[in-house]
Amino acid sequence: MAVIFSRSADKYLRLTVLIALFGGAGAIGLIAYLSHPAVRDTGYAPAQPVEYSHKLHAGNLGLDCRYCHSTVERSAFAALPATEVCMNCHARVKKDSPLLQPVRDSFATGAPIPWVKVHRLPDYVYFNHRAHVTAGVSCASCHGRVDQMIVVKQTAPLSMAWCLDCHRNPDASVRPAEQVTNLGWQPDRDAAEIGREIIQAKGIAPPTNCSGCHR
Ligand code: HEC
Ligand code: HEC
Ligand code: HEC
Ligand code: HEC
Ligand code: HEC
Fold first, then answer.
1. Which of 126, 124, 129 is nearest to 142 (CA)?
2. Mean pLDDT for the stretch of residues 130-140
3. Which ligand gives the minimal distance to the CA of 170?
4. Which of 41, 51, 80, 100 is the pocket-test mutation for ligand 1 (most atoms within 8 Å of CB)?
5. Among the listed ranges 8-12, 53-57, 124-128, 210-214, which one has the minimum average pLDDT value?
């Protein structure tokens, strides 16, 4: 469905069903609730063109996030892997699996796999992965336990209030750089205390002024 319909079309389809179920008054409340920025996209988990599982590859097999999202430490965007990265293994592993047919087709034709984007900020917001990852903010703070997800799901609202909450009080969200992609990291003492030490040592100061995030 999510491949055929746009994200908003899917939302309207669900709304139509809800209106049919609960009637007009309930539906108006629901529209107000769903269009509030803070709750808009949490839970969004579109179907993907290949049944690729992070739980299997990042969780069970233990592949580091940066093996596939190789630009996340050095650029604003966290690139998706090229088909060649999948074929590093799948030229041999499960090489006749029907689930991997779209991957083999993409490799043969050179046409990229049409992955459906899950997280999206409005264009007027400035966001940079490198700034966060090198400061020690874990993928888990913003994307949840992706290593336990079969299908990637948006866990944070990505609203302005959500960004600002962390920027105003980042202590517990900053960890040693080598633990950023270790999503299940358990600190051996108070996380906020560890974060405060790193913030002081590195002079970390997330922006809270309007021009810090808006251009
Ligand atoms: C073997 C390759 C591979 C590894 C390893 C991997 N990913 Fe991914 N990731 C993908 C692919 C392919 C997609 C696009 C399809 C999807 O969303 O499932 C993706 C999508 C995502 C998305 C959603 C992007 C969007 O559209 O908004 C996030 C977030 C993400 N990965 C985080 C992680 C994190 C965190 C780790 C480490 C725990 C990780 N990935 C490890 C291949 C990988
Ligand atoms: C480091 C090796 C490795 C890489 C890289 C890798 N995979 Fe896998 N993949 C595996 C292994 C191992 C399995 C599990 C095989 C099994 O169940 O015996 C698997 C299973 C799968 C399956 C399920 C196949 C089935 O028939 O059950 C899919 C789909 C899949 N991978 C897609 C991908 C995609 C898409 C990429 C690239 C984004 C990718 N894989 C990258 C090793 C890898
Ligand atoms: C501070 C929050 C934050 C952290 C930390 C973070 N991300 Fe993201 N990520 C986002 C946001 C916000 C987007 C949507 C960006 C957009 O639409 O411009 C995103 C998008 C993505 C995407 C889709 C491609 C893109 O860049 O738009 C992938 C893949 C991804 N993140 C992977 C990761 C991985 C892997 C890590 C850890 C190494 C990570 N992210 C850490 C917030 C974060
Ligand atoms: C979990 C904590 C956390 C969240 C959530 C978060 N940030 Fe940040 N942000 C930080 C930290 C820590 C820094 C690093 C500041 C430094 O190094 O001085 C930072 C730095 C920045 C910077 C300045 C660095 C640069 O790239 O120019 C911008 C802009 C920014 N964040 C935007 C955002 C936006 C937009 C969102 C929401 C979509 C967001 N952040 C969500 C913690 C967070
Ligand atoms: C830490 C980053 C950050 C800072 C600082 C920030 N914003 Fe935002 N702002 C965002 C993000 C992210 C969104 C998009 C929210 C969404 O899509 O729900 C946004 C959205 C907005 C919107 C559109 C609201 C809407 O409902 O569509 C306005 C207006 C706005 N910001 C004004 C401001 C003003 C004024 C300031 C300074 C007082 C400010 N912002 C500071 C991140 C930030």
1. 129
2. 98
3. 4
4. 80
5. 8-12
